[in-house]
Amino acid sequence: MEAASNGSKAMGTFPPSLHFEQRGIVGILRLSRPHKRNALDDATIRGIEEFFAAVPDDIKAVVIHGEGDHFCAGLDLSELTERDIAAGIAHSQAWHRAFERIEFGRVPVVAALHGAVVGGGLELAAACHIRVAERSAYYALPEGSRGIFLGGGGSVRLPRLIGTARVIDMMLTARTYGADEGAPLGFSHYVVDPGAGLATAIELAERIAGNAPMTNFAAMHVLPRNAEQDRASGLLMESLMSAIAQGDPEAKRRLRDFLEKRAPKTVHR
Ligand code: 1HE
């Protein structure tokens, strides 16, 4: 791993396929293996897991993006040929650990997508909290034609994002979706012009980083779990979380700011 650039403190070592940069309170993690279209090998997955397990305290949101013409071509297929069944299970579980660290970690993660967002690349994007797609982005699940299956949590996350029927279609027919048609279906939250993805993602991450930490925690950890649990448990969880967030001194300060006319109004631009 390279030492963190832009003057932030060194964070151990990253594999050469990952580059980290800190800009203020936002961390920027770049998939840096463009000659292999940012295909995810074991070292990269380990690097992702280690990074998200120990995001430095002064980083409040993270952006992930890819170097070159594509966000990520998915699993590094060259590592697959020699694996037996037990090693295959361990491999998939290593991806699960890494992507769970993203989805249920300490900080919200914004993905800036462009070019191929396919297979494991789409699984990685699905583990992030916000997805910004440049118009060049396209989504596919080539697993169907490669004789394999999703292994990075995609069979759990993608149906929740875009619906099970659509995931089945993508697997069986190799159907692809472009950025514009994908956005209303749930693949991304935002679509931006070519070249604008990273800047937009950083802008969003900076805004997210300025939220009260308890609000970010609740959005990341309570909302997805409430979508999965029964109604009564969800409502109870909501009451508890709501009281915890309100009780935080940061919330009290923000409420006072609004009542004393120091906070911006909520308007639609
Ligand atoms: C790779 C990979 C890869 C590129 N593993 N090496 N993912 C896929 O099935 C997608 C496979 N990739 C592609 O379809 C294309 O590479 C792209 C459409 C993404 C880009 O095309 P292009 O023309 O820009 O690049 P390229 O010439 O195909 O690839 C450049 C190099 O990257 C080349 O290596 P080289 O040594 O010949 O230069 C490719 O072999 C290499 N490369 N993609 C390994 N994926 C946890 S389970 C998840 C399961 C999955 O993710 S399955 C989906 C796998």
Residue windows where pLDDT falls under 50 for at least 5 positions: 1-10
Q: State mean pLDDT (0 to 100 scale).
A: 94
Number of helices: 11
The CA-CA distance between the termini, in Å, is 42 Å
In what order do the strands lie side by side in the largest sheet?
A: 1-2-3-4-6-9
The total beta strand count reads 9
What is the 3D form?
Answer: globular
- State which percent range the strand residues make up: 5-15%
Give the SSE order as H and E letters: EEHEHEEHEEHHHEHEHHHH
Helix/strand-derived category reads alpha/beta
- What Rg, in angstroms, do the CA atoms define? 19 Å
Bound molecules: 3-methylmercaptopropionate-CoA (MMPA-CoA)
**Helical residues, percent:** 40-55%
* Assembly context of the chains: single chain
Query: How would you sum up the major sheet?
Result: 6 strands, mixed
